[in-house]
Design goal:
The structure is a homodimer of 200-residue chains. With 200 residues, the first copy, chain A, is α/β, with parallel strands linked by helices. Chain A has two domains: 5-54, Helicase, Ruva Protein, domain 3 (Orthogonal Bundle); 57-199, Dna Topoisomerase Vi A Subunit, Chain: A, domain 2, CATH 3.40.1360. Chain A is 42% helix and 12% strand. Chain A is built from seven helices and seven strands. Chain A has a five-stranded mixed β-sheet with strand order 4-3-5-6-7. In chain A, strands 1-2 form a two-stranded antiparallel ribbon. In chain A, α1 crosses α2 (22-35). The termini of chain A are far apart. At the A-B interface, α1, α2, α3, β2 and α4 of A face α1, α2, α3, β2 and α4 of B.
């Protein structure tokens, strides 16, 4: 194989990214090396470097943010006694497109998955409980995990804990198709689901 | 939309890469920012930076290389009177896996495509003619462009020029399925094609 070592190395690194196979990694590497202008490569490198440097987790809701607390947590016009719990920052963005929801958020950073050995201590269950304990204002927790088995399991686990604290727990209602992935749902479906949320 | 600006920018840049749609760009960006260790991000950035810096076109065959002339052009054990013309560095690697071929190469950097306004001056036809003129030893040119209409058109165009210079021209023979892409062919198919190459 007469491939330059630096390209070989680049392919090895790129193919570790999610959803990128060996052929795609090769295609991207050759494209970057032989077709992209140096200026555009610099833009690519800098955009990654800058985002990685600037973006942190909000210490209140754990959303990705350049400011701490994030713009949502520090927005005084939002309703501060309702928290919507989501799996990931991408899910938070999907829910935040529904303008009718004006409450706060909490990003779990994953869902329970016994088969992958992901238990309660691997996601931010403890941080969430701590937040509820520190903030006596919370009157409702909306659980907006995916409508698949892991999301459902996580919702039930979390609901049990929150209910014991005397706080109302709801789950996104009708609208979400069974097995569906929140991140890919359209805004109307999410809106319907928020409107028709049901107590657990 | 409550997405950090630096992530937004990163998605914009990444989705311009070939074969990467907006959703994939978003997924990659969030993965890099929130899941990858800083060390691994540095490895990714450095591998791109180093490859882009180190890899140039060989000034003889225009293959991508860290040394000039490249390891193939400067390999004195190779047969120096046969040149295999390929479209891209990836195609060169596919052909170079066939150990039975011991000749030299030339990378055109594209194929003729009137619909995309790619004419002879947009690929390295002139450089190739110049190379043939400067090197009186060449007795055969093997054209190994893809077996699709653009590859065929390019082969015919190039064959006419080379034949007028009194040099034998062959084209990869049986083995390549019609409409097939060289980069994805297996080694045996390419070997058969080289063995059964036919004069044009």
């Amino acid at each position: 194989m007469n491939r330059p070592k630096t390209i070989e190395k680049m392919i090895e690194v790129i193919k570790k990214l999610p959803g990128i196979g060996p052929k795609m990694a090769e295609r991207l590497s050759y494209y970057i090396v032989s077709k992209m202008l140096q200026d555009d490569v610099n833009k690519l490198l800098n955009s990654i470097k800058e985002a990685k440097l600037a973006v942190k987790n909000c210490t209140v809701c754990y959303n990705l943010t350049e400011y701490n607390p994030c713009v949502i947590c520090s927005d005084s016009t939002r309703i501060r006694n309702v928290i919507c719990v989501v799996e990931s920052p991408q899910d938070l963005i999907a829910v935040s497109k529904v303008k009718e929801y004006k409450g706060l958020y909490f990003v779990l950073g994953g869902v329970l998955s016994p088969l992958d050995a992901i238990g309660p201590s691997d996601i931010r269950i403890d941080n969430f409980v701590k937040r509820l304990k520190n903030d006596n204002n919370i009157s409702e927790v909306i659980i907006a995990t995916d409508a698949d088995s892991k999301g459902e399991m996580t919702a039930i686990y979390l609901a049990n804990i929150v209910k014991k604290m005397g706080i109302k727990v709801t789950r996104l209602g009708c609208g979400l198709p069974v097995g569906g992935d929140i991140e890919y749902a359209d805004e109307r479906t999410i809106y319907n689901a928020i409107t028709a949320r049901k107590e657990m």
